[in-house]
Amino acid sequence: MTIRVLLADDQALLRSAFRVLVDSEPDMEVVGEASDGAEALRLAREHGPDVVLMDIRMPGTDGLAATRLISADPSLAQVRVVILTTFEVDDYVVQALRAGASGFLGKGSEPEELLSAIRVAAGGEALLSPAATKGLIARFLAQGDDGHAPDPARAERLGALTGREREVLVQVAGGHSNDEIAERLEVSPLTVKTHVNRAMAKLGARDRAQLVVIAYESGLVRPRTD
């Protein structure tokens, strides 16, 4: 199956480089290029890509706003957004995850990392480096742009989870893979995947990235401040 990719970046040179890289892969193709968020939204509706590589800082409608609009559009439920940022330690990253992005990647990443990110996102997984899930995202949520406190509504929805699903959610928020969680909880990876999928359904999460955010915003997992 060919992974359809939409590029959204205000720098034409970068878009060109990304296009050459993506189109060189036998299982990928670039279906469109956008220079701002509004164009990215229009092209996403027009072409229905599997993955959008979204620059977060663009003139007019920025990547954050575009991500939120794409995630809120039921007709684009299959679209996964990967945020591209110059600095991984970026104040907008956690906002992008809250807006529905599947993860983020530094623009300085190696070509193979970018290609892997596209495949991971297209497969419905969260693109969050272990460093991000284990520390960076938590610190952003702890510091926040508004002293973000645990969301009572989020916390109440956790009541729908079984005890095992809550255990798995804590492990997901810690940045652990299904195989790692299976080993820790002494169950099979398939069982872990089932629990993750059920937790996503009950909490209305699009993917693992949103599960991580929900775990912190609900207060289930305490943010690190070190």
UniProtKB/TrEMBL annotation:
The keyword Phosphoprotein applies. The keyword Ligase does not apply. This is Response regulator transcription factor. Keywords: DNA-binding, Phosphoprotein, Transcription, Transcription regulation. The modification 4-aspartylphosphate is found at residue 55. SMART domains: HTH_LUXR, REC. Residues 4-122 form the Response regulatory domain. Residues 154-219 form the HTH luxR-type domain. It comes from the Bacteria.
